[in-house]
Amino acid sequence: MPIRTILFDLDGTLADTAPDLAFALNAVLVEQGREPLSLGCIRPVVSHGALALVRLGFGFGPEDARFGALRQRLVEVYRENLTRGTRLFPGMAELLENIEARGMRWGVVTNKPAALTEPLLARLGLTARAAAVVSGDTLSVRKPDPAPMLLACQQAQSHPAHCVYVGDAERDVQAGRNAGMATLVALFGYLGDEDRPQDWGADGMIEHPDEVLPWITKRFQRAV
Question: Which domain holds residue 174?
Fold first, then answer.
């Protein structure tokens, strides 16, 4: 099937959001009288959202009565610093331009809530260019459920068989496969030492955004 649409995860695939999420977590840690953590320590858990960040910083999750307030404060600080240091990954801007130049579409499917996704994409100048944007609260379910992927296909007016999903977490691969689309692991994303992307069942893995279109060309034996 010809690939017409490329969908991306947001954190750790389309954009390097780790600096700002690390800033937010460390700000809350300092407010609570704790020592800040290094970016290298925080980076691998960024794709797993605020719950994982609070658990990393404080050692507990929703089972603790303090979690809700800490999570809310983390989100507040992050919302105020969405693009303090966030940038597209090197080569991603060129990839998006090449996708558009070939008459293909691209979009975003993320578990990040819309209240953060939409202003972030706007500040990066991407809102009007994206053929699909599905956030973590757009539907009642999130990845790895395939429903957000299928909604993105509808928005982009593409059949799942004509789509490739690029992400940096196992749930991204699961969601894409369950939706019937090809999947790529972004090895440049937020993978931890314990992650084994070779076992996730993806159709391919890439080290850099400039590998996406050549991979599609080779995989589907057609020029794009």
Answer: 5-16+86-220
223: confidence class by pLDDT, cuts 50, 70, 90: very low
- Are 98 and 181 within one domain? yes
Given the residues 11, 20, 172, 195, select the one marked as catalytic. Answer: 11
- Over 90: is that where the pLDDT of 221 sits? no
195 in the same domain as 160: yes
HSE (side-chain half, CA atoms, 13 Å) at 67: 14
CA-based nearest residue to 62, from 44, 195, 20, 72: 72
Among the candidates 79, 108, 128, a domain finishes at 79
Residue 9 falls in the annotated catalytic set: yes
* DSSP at 45: G
193: annotated active-site residue:
no
Tell me the whole-structure pTM to 2 decimals. 0.94
Residues 75 and 131 in one domain: no
